[in-house]
TrEMBL record:
It comes from Mucilaginibacter defluvii. InterPro entries: NAD(P)-bd_dom_sf, Sc_DH/Rdtase_CS, SDR_fam. This is SDR family oxidoreductase. It comes from the Bacteria. PROSITE patterns: ADH_SHORT. Keywords: Oxidoreductase. Belongs to the short-chain dehydrogenases/reductases (SDR) family. PANTHER family: DEHYDROGENASE/REDUCTASE SDR FAMILY MEMBER 11 (PTHR43115), DEHYDROGENASE_REDUCTASE SDR FAMILY MEMBER 11 (PTHR43115:SF4).
Length: 246
């Protein structure tokens, strides 16, 4: 049985730029009804407008993934708009890289709140909907940093290691009709480096990845691949790096 993306209701957190925006646009092109969430509603309005102008179906809602109630309302909004929810994509994330001994403790908290608690809030919001109909799919966007740590990425990697653990555990706990997919991008074009507050580290990060970044659409295609598989095929994990990143 070939499950098409056509007609699926897909909610995406962090859809106001970068990878989330690319996922929303790509899946809408393939016929999904996409529900976009993020804090920058001006961006969401523009992106949704562009999708609709191309004949796609899209709605948006203001969303802060650190607020559990807000994420629950976001999932409910998707079902109200389109009658059901088929895929929930936990994509929102921050990457304020820094050395531990710079003690950017507020940024550690932000990363844990968005990258880890945000994902748990997404699961708490969508899983009851999926369990009620015994079908659904989570796509959790981690990073190659979900299995690799380097200087300045300690806390960021810790949050992504956590999301990998959460995804693996979730897959084993839920019904076989609920799929859990992890997509781990390498260096990808987006606004992510903007979250680095240390000007020198931000410069280094941008310099390091100036050449051969993946277009965000490459990650969107990986997400589409996982969604379009037959219902009894669970693509557990996809890792995508630009060829220049080893
Ligand atoms: P962007 O900075 O372009 O996008 C991040 C998105 O997260 C934005 O839409 C932002 O929206 C949203 N976001 C941040 N905080 C919140 C919040 N509290 N509530 C809701 N949404 C929030 O970067 P990317 O597209 O690169 O990031 C997407 C994901 O990809 C992240 O999880 C990131 O860790 C991961 N990733 C990216 C890589 C890369 O090289 N680009 C590599 C590996 C992983 P807003 O500010 O409007 O709320």
């Amino acid at each position: 049985e070939q499950i098409k993306i056509q007609g699926k209701v897909v909610a995406i957190t962090g859809a106001s730029s970068g990878i989330g925006e690319a996922i929303a646009k790509h899946l809408a092109k393939l016929g999904a009804k996409v529900v976009l969430g993020a804090r920058r509603t001006d961006n969401l309005k523009t992106i949704t407008g562009a999708i609709i102008a191309q004949g796609g179906q899209a709605v948006y809602k203001s969303l802060d993934v650190t607020d559990q109630q807000d994420v629950a309302s976001f999932a409910k909004f998707a079902t109200e708009q389109y009658g059901t929810l088929d895929v929930f994509i936990n994509n929102a994330g921050l990457m304020p890289l820094s050395m531990i001994n710079a003690y950017k403790i507020k940024e550690w908290h932000q990363m844990i709140d968005v990258n880890v608690k945000g994902v748990l809030h997404g699961i708490a919001a969508a899983l009851p909907i999926f369990e009620a109909k015994d079908s659904g799919q989570f796509v959790n966007i981690t990073s190659v940093g979900d299995r690799w740590v380097g200087p300045t990425s300690t806390v960021y990697s810790a949050t992504k290691f956590a999301v990998r653990a959460i995804s693996d555990g979730l897959r084993q706990e839920v019904s076989e009709n609920i799929r859990v997919t992890l997509v781990a991008p390498g260096a990808t074009q987006s606004e992510l480096a903007e979250t680095i507050s240390d000007p020198e580290l931000k410069k280094q990060a941008i310099e390091k990845f100036r050449i051969n970044l993946l277009p965000a659409e490459a990650i969107a295609r990986a997400v589409a691949y996982a969604i379009e598989q037959p219902a009894d095929v669970d693509v557990n994990e996809i890792v995508v790096r630009p060829t220049a990143q080893k």
